[in-house]
């Protein structure tokens, strides 16, 4: 509970826990050593995929977490993904793959929304599962999603607790009954659909663009490509105090700008492009006219330079990296580096070469952030890291200018502009729906689909939580128990039909029933007579209500069937008098289907092509109405 409250206070953050099974009592120091070995093996195994990844805020990281209360010691990680939700789902993919590569590990993952995997598969969850009882039930084991079930009220299962399990109970259930806790295929598919395409999807999430940047930033990003995220975030989240440092640039002078190619994530690129910003005249950053062919590159470079200047301005003037613990001092570094060599991370490069050193620096940076993450008080901020690189990494401006003449082409950024059709397709893919069938033309459309769908909808169960929409057209309607229905009426109307307390009918009205009917009731069983009498009374009520409403504005608003046989005359003398008093007209029943369809079409037409109750309800049932062409303005004749 305390852990959930802590997580709830951190926005856009995902936590992941890796437990070792079977959960047996172990010496704490020995257990810690085992888990540290697993951290080293995991981070080394996934290093080729994680090292070049550009994170929005914080990287994927693992550390040892000692046991507390009933939670055993385990491997823990927490990442703030910020505005880029893809970082969170990439972590889901990594965690899932960890349990697949290391089958003795069980993983649990959640964010500040709680069990977000269940939220993703909400349409397919069993009815008993809700946020109140989902704690410690959802895990990844051997690459599969598992949900520990709750025992039914009618039966008791010895290995299932009646309340949400504790972590030790959950680990014991997973290790002893793994085949009985697998999530359904539909739930598995919903989660797998969200992480489908990784790791190839990583490249598709990147965007390469030309930027006119100071040479210092170009040199820094060559060593630390991931720092582009910190620069974009500093500019994107700037405030007036931050911009004071950008009135006159002290670190990244505009006179040193050169053209270069920068790799962003699509989220970072969109954040940078969509911001409108004019630099201070005193800064020296001047933009060419918008018609200039390289205006976008100048604008992106100006914004990114402001972000890097803001980062450096937040560093202490007495900053020194001597207080920072070097990576090579960690006892895990030697084993980590040896494992990278065994995994052919350096691709056969000669030790000491420029490319070898570049990959080595990336590995050190990855190790520092993800494996040997220091305490927050000793962690190096992005600004301090930038200043350190500027002091330690030499760069030649002339050499960088030569590289600017042979830059790779930019990526097309038309993905920023979505058409309505593309948006609909993305929403359908996110919801896991199939491509809708083409809508028939108005003159060929079968309106019986509307009435059938509405009848199927009405036949479904509805509760205080809402109505259940029919998922499949072929699904059988809800069953109707006639005996139970009649029993309910028997309880409501009482055992004796002549004891009705209606304000509309007196007991004398019931005495006018035909004598033959009375004889039939007397020969029947008491229970059957009571039910038959109740139904006759109900029919009598309904008939009189119809007679009263037939000549009102409400009655005339409904469309009736054109051809209908006259209703049989009732034997009740009072009813005969009322019929004659009404003008002797023969009532025709209402055409329910026609009224239903006409009212829905009228509501749909009044929406004028926008979203509304009629279209939303029909689309949720898979019914697509054609466009209304009756009121379209006629095209103007061409002028001669």
Automatic annotation (TrEMBL):
GO terms for cellular component: nucleus. Residues 556-574 have a biased composition (Polar residues). Pfam families: SGT1. Residues 501-525 have a biased composition (Acidic residues). Residues 495-530, 556-589, 621-640 are annotated as: Disordered. This is Protein SGT1. The lineage of its organism: Eukaryota, Metazoa, Chordata, Craniata, Vertebrata.
């Amino acid at each position: 509970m305390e852990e959930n409250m802590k997580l709830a206070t951190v926005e856009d953050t995902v936590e992941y826990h890796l437990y070792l099974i079977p959960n047996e009592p172990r010496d704490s120091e020995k257990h810690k050593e085992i888990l540290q070995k697993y951290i080293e093996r995991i981070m080394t195994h996934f290093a080729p995929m994680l090292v070049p990844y550009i994170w929005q805020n914080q990287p994927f990281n693992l550390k040892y977490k000692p046991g507390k209360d009933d939670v055993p010691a385990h491997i823990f990680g927490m990442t703030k993904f910020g505005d880029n939700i893809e970082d969170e789902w990439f972590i889901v993919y990594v965690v899932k793959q960890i349990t697949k590569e290391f089958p003795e590990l069980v993983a649990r993952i959640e964010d500040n929304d709680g069990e977000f995997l269940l939220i993703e598969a909400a349409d397919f969850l069993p009815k008993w599962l809700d946020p109140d009882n989902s704690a410690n039930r959802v895990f990844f084991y051997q690459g599969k999603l598992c949900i520990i079930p709750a025992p039914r009220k009618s039966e008791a299962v010895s290995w299932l607790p009646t309340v949400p399990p504790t972590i030790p109970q959950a680990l014991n259930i997973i290790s002893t009954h793994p085949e009985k806790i697998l999530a359904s295929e539909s739930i598995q598919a919903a989660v797998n659909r969200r992480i489908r395409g990784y790791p190839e999807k990583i490249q598709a999430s990147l965007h390469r663009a030309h930027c006119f940047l100071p040479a210092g930033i170009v040199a820094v990003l060559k060593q630390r490509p991931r720092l582009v995220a910190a620069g974009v975030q500093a500019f994107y989240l700037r405030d007036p105090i931050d911009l004071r440092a950008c009135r006159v640039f002290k670190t990244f002078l505009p006179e040193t700008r050169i053209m270069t190619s920068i790799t962003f994530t699509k989220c970072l690129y969109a954040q940078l492009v969509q911001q409108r910003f004019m630099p201070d005249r005193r800064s020296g950053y001047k933009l060419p006219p918008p018609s200039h062919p390289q205006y976008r590159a100048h604008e992106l470079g100006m914004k990114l330079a402001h972000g890097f200047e803001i980062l450096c301005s937040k560093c202490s003037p007495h900053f020194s990296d001597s207080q920072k613990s070097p990576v090579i001092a960690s006892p895990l570094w030697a084993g980590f580096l040896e494992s990278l060599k065994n995994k052919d991370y350096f691709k056969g490069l000669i030790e000491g070469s420029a490319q070898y050193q570049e990959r080595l620096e990336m590995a050190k940076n990855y190790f520092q952030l993800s494996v040997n993450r220091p305490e927050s008080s000793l962690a190096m901020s992005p600004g301090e890291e930038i200043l350190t690189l500027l002091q330690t990494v030499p760069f030649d401006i002339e050499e960088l200018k030569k590289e600017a003449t042979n830059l790779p082409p930019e990526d097309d950024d038309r993905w920023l502009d979505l058409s309505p059709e593309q948006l609909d397709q993305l929403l359908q893919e996110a919801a896991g729906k199939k491509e809708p069938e083409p809508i028939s033309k108005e003159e060929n459309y079968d309106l019986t689909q509307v009435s059938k769908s509405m009848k199927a909808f009405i036949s479904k169960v509805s509760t205080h939580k809402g109505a259940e929409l029919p998922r499949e057209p072929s699904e059988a309607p809800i069953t109707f128990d006639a005996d139970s229905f009649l029993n309910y009426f028997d309880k409501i109307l009482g055992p004796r039909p002549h004891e009705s307390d209606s304000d509309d009918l007196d007991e004398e009205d019931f005495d006018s029933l035909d004598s033959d009917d009375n004889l039939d009731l007397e020969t029947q069983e008491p229970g059957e007579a009571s039910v038959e009498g109740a139904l006759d009374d109900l029919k009598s009520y309904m008939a009189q209500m119809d007679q009263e409403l037939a000549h009102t504005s409400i009655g005339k608003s409904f469309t009736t069937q054109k051809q209908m046989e006259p209703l049989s005359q009732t034997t009740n003398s009072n009813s005969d008098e009322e019929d004659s008093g009404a003008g002797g007209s023969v009532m025709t029943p209402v055409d329910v289907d026609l009224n239903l369809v006409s009212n829905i079409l009228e509501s749909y037409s009044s929406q004028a092509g926008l979203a509304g109750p009629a279209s939303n309800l029909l689309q949720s049932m898979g019914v697509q109405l054609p466009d209304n062409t009756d009121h379209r303005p006629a095209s103007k004749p061409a002028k001669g």
